[in-house]
Amino acid sequence: MSQALDIAVVGATGSVGEALVQILEELQFPVATLHLLASMESAGSSVMFAGKKVRVREVDSFDFAQVKLAFFAAGAAVSRTFASKAREAGCSVIDLSGGLEEALSIVPEANPEALDGLKLPVVVSSPSSGAIALAVALAPLRGVLDIERIQVMACLAVSSQGREAVNELARQTAELLNARPLEPRFFDRQVAFNLLAQVGATDEQGHGTLERRLVSESRVLLGLPELKISVSCVQVPVFFGDSFSVSVQSRTPVDVQAVKLALDGAASVERVENDDYPTPVGDAVGQDVVYVGRVRQGIDADHQLDLWLTTDNVRKGAALNAVQLAQLLIKKMA
Amino acid sequence: MSQALDIAVVGATGSVGEALVQILEELQFPVATLHLLASMESAGSSVMFAGKKVRVREVDSFDFAQVKLAFFAAGAAVSRTFASKAREAGCSVIDLSGGLEEALSIVPEANPEALDGLKLPVVVSSPSSGAIALAVALAPLRGVLDIERIQVMACLAVSSQGREAVNELARQTAELLNARPLEPRFFDRQVAFNLLAQVGATDEQGHGTLERRLVSESRVLLGLPELKISVSCVQVPVFFGDSFSVSVQSRTPVDVQAVKLALDGAASVERVENDDYPTPVGDAVGQDVVYVGRVRQGIDADHQLDLWLTTDNVRKGAALNAVQLAQLLIKKMA
């Protein structure tokens, strides 16, 4: 049993922050004192942890020297402002915001060895939901495929954008079902019963920030710096659960049976046979694994593997991976 | 002005059949007498055409020698039973069911010349919504790309499966919003706020019938019999409007500016610049064009073009294409 640690959760009132606190408790993470932090607007409320109410305080006035480990789940701007201060105070940081480009991305199932070379205190990144899903599903396949190129269509749940986006999908849906005029608020247009082919801002070449992030994170996680990868992100009218249609080009012919065996041997993968298929609602949501289904060769390409992945974007796609990463980190601290 | 023809619409009471009748009227198709036909259960009702009520009669007892042209929009089984009888009676057939494998697929914007070699009466196929969207968007690019491979994720609206599927999405959504228990009827599971990664039956290799159809139709329409193409179909909780995330691998580097110009010159394409993007609801639905957006090179592949297409699956994706095909056909009859 590891020694209990004083830790902080920044962004404790957001949906990922809430899931973090819940998973720390579920996994009996060795917490001595838990400090919950948020921006000024959200500070003052309380969150339950291990049967006690913990008050949420302002991150601005927190002294990070009080803790050995902090999770940052309050967005890129907050991470950029406070993560380096935390580290200077001797606190290791696990960032969930994607805002710290210099922080190494780690998924325990894919590149746990990346921690070995780092000196405490560290600043590491728990990557985007898509990169986690790809890493969990594809890392076990590195032994049976010679991966050259990956093509991903990411179908993102509205909860990836936080609680306001969840409320907006519910509100828009209710307005439409009641035949009332729709006035979009959180999204700039109708998201209910619709698909939005762009998530966040795009650059001059037309690629989204999240799309580029998924590319660079996947290369690191899979240890394939030369990997060619293309991503299109689409916002779908789903509350929880991200899904990914994935095609992998291999340099050698794909042995589907070997792929299935490798997936079956992976602890964080639940493979669904082709007489069925996994869905976000009903399978992935609330679960701690990446569901993999529709495992097949390309229709006319024996060097291609097609897959469908779905995962809980708040748990395995965010909070759970961060806590699993923290579990690796505390071994290093011991 | 062409001579007016006696024509038949089989499956007149379905959503595509209804759209066919409406579009025949909108485009002032030269109809002398319109015969509306359906299965026994749907016969007896009436449909408005050109200001008059037209009674729907049973297809079983219809003599196809009365008409020169028949649209078949009543499913694969009906086409297989009656299309060859119609042709033997001297009636040309435009099949919308996908059930006649020997029938040549035609999209007027892509392969109108395919009609030249055929002798009247003909049996031709108006292909699936995905193949139509791909053909309309990619045919104009054959001059600026050397297309080697296409990767498609097709996000299909529930209306692709008819009126019952539309009602089921509405019903499931209402049940969920009212926190009532969900009992799936038309679909085998929850489709509201969910994604179903399989549409229809799959074969032993794991590919769906519709996925294989889209592949073979696209090769014919684009005149590229050797084209490598992979398709994944997903049922999305959208009522109307099919969308497609498409990656095209070219044998030569992609000139994005030339691609945009070629798309802008195509009559049935509406291109949306990258500061915006097209959506099924709000753009495509009710329109007669294929919307193309997010035109960009692959993130790290200058031989790749990424696109997002969206189109009205009932109009351009089905009924409108069939009527445009009929317009070509009557020139041949004149």
**Percentage of residues in helical conformation of chain A:** 25-40%
What separation lies between the terminal Cα atoms of chain A? 10 Å
CATH topology title of the largest domain in chain A: Dihydrodipicolinate Reductase, domain 2
In total, the number of domains of chain A comes to 2
Structural Rg of chain A: 20 Å
Strand content of chain A: 25-35%
Major sheet of chain A: size, sense and barrel closure?
Answer: 8 strands, mixed
The secondary-structure class of chain A comes to: alpha/beta
Mean pLDDT of chain A: 95
Which class of the largest domain in chain A in CATH terms? Alpha Beta
Order of helices and strands of chain A: EHEEEEHEEEHEHHEEHEHEEH
Oligomer: homodimer
CATH superfamily heading of the largest domain in chain A: Dihydrodipicolinate Reductase, domain 2
Low-confidence stretches of chain A: none
Q: Please, how many helices of chain A?
A: 8
Strand order of the largest sheet of chain A: 3-4-2-1-5-6-8-7
> Which two protein chains have the largest interface (Cβ within 8 Å of the partner's Cβ), and how many residues from each?
A-B, 58 and 58 residues
Total count of strands of chain A: 14
Family (chains A, B): Belongs to the aspartate-semialdehyde dehydrogenase family.
Protein name (chains A, B): Aspartate-semialdehyde dehydrogenase
Enzyme class (chains A, B): oxidoreductase
GO molecular function (chains A, B): aspartate-semialdehyde dehydrogenase activity; NAD binding; protein dimerization activity
